[in-house]
Amino acid sequence: MEVASVLAGERWSDHPRCTHPLLAEAVRLINDQVGDESRQRLVRLIPDVIGANRRHPVITAELVRVLARHALAASPGDEALHWADDRARRRIARWESGGWWRHRWLRASDYWFRTHERVRVPALLRAMLDCDDEAFVAVVTDTIATYHRTVRRLDAGQPACTPRCEEGTADIVDAAPEPVRQRADR
Questions:
Q1: How far apart, in whole angstroms, are the C-alpha atoms of residue 62 and residue 113?
Q2: pLDDT tier at 79, thresholds 50, 70, 90
Q3: pLDDT for 46-70, tens place per residue?
Q4: Are the C-beta atoms of 13 and 2 separated by less than 8 Å?
Q5: Helix, strand, coil shares of the chain as percentages rounded to 5?
Q6: Closest alpha carbon to 60 in 146, 131, 179
Q7: Hey, which residues does 52 pair with through a beta bridge?
Q8: Residue ranges of the alpha helices (H) in 34-99?
Q9: pTM of this prediction?
Q10: Does residue 162 register a pLDDT over 50?
């Protein structure tokens, strides 16, 4: 994230303003977790996080969903991960079905949501600590793609999810991640 901040014309920082806080935190933590070879693969993704700083309740919820989905692949029985995934899905459904007052409330509570102890990135990624580097690189790639896909949907005025989402039965993210491999060295 330090390189991204400099390339974006900001001061040297691992908390660049040019990147969504949740996305930046995920990249920082995963960068610290993986080995040198995988870290070099993450370097190629730097241009994709520069300018990825749009703040919107749907973007935050989508990022939480993709992180929770990957963590659930490593730890399917973790109730906290299911709670985070469900809470994010509900926030998206509320945005889609709400009026101006609901949009205002969701925007006002976005900071609370992304800093809630059960939704914070370390809590979401804790279940993956024994996973191999490939799983972590997949998390970063999928999280960045989700950010950009969600921004395109919002810009086009498209709903973030299918109409069934309001009923609470639809998945916002289309496909589940592949089962993760555990690290051989642990």
A1: 12
A2: very high
A3: 778 877 888 899 999 999 999 999 9
A4: yes
A5: 65, 0, 35
A6: 146
A7: 19
A8: 36-43, 46-49, 57-74, 79-97
A9: 0.79
A10: no
